[in-house]
Amino acid sequence: MIPNLIILYIDNPIISSRFYQKLFNKEPDVMFPTWAAFSFKNGLNLGLWSTTASDFASSGEGNRTELSFIVKDIKEVDALYQQWLESGVQIEQEPRQAVFGKTFVALDPDGHRIRVCIPD
């Protein structure tokens, strides 16, 4: 088995899908009132599931995950940081050196962490 779907619990699929559409430069493959989904050529899928959906059930709260993008080098980390900053993406952690290399963290409209880093 190979994991191929990440689901983020969100408040509003329209707002969140617009955010990710800007980040990915691609429209969602599926858009419903309480669910949106993006698919990628590498087989990964990202689902955005509204916590207001009648079929949503979870006993947890808060955002404890990161959606991470490993990019080829430090120049790409810096370029994405500038691009996202200029487009109004909220930055939680400015670029810095971590144990695994240069990285920064942005936030989506629901507070999910989006990390950009280089391969370790």
UniProtKB/TrEMBL annotation:
<keyword id="KW-0046">Antibiotic resistance</keyword>
<dbReference type="InterPro" id="IPR026275">
    <property type="entry name" value="Glyoxalase/dOase/EhpR"/>
</dbReference>
<comment type="function">
    <text>Required for resistance to the phenazine antibiotic.</text>
</comment>
<dbReference type="InterPro" id="IPR004360">
    <property type="entry name" value="Glyas_Fos-R_dOase_dom"/>
</dbReference>
<dbReference type="InterPro" id="IPR037523">
    <property type="entry name" value="VOC_core"/>
</dbReference>
<comment type="subunit">
    <text>Homodimer.</text>
</comment>
<dbReference type="InterPro" id="IPR029068">
    <property type="entry name" value="Glyas_Bleomycin-R_OHBP_Dase"/>
</dbReference>
<dbReference type="Pfam" id="PF00903">
    <property type="entry name" value="Glyoxalase"/>
</dbReference>
<feature type="domain" description="VOC">
    <location>
        <begin position="2"/>
        <end position="119"/>
    </location>
</feature>
<protein>
    <recommendedName>
        <fullName>Phenazine antibiotic resistance protein</fullName>
    </recommendedName>
</protein>
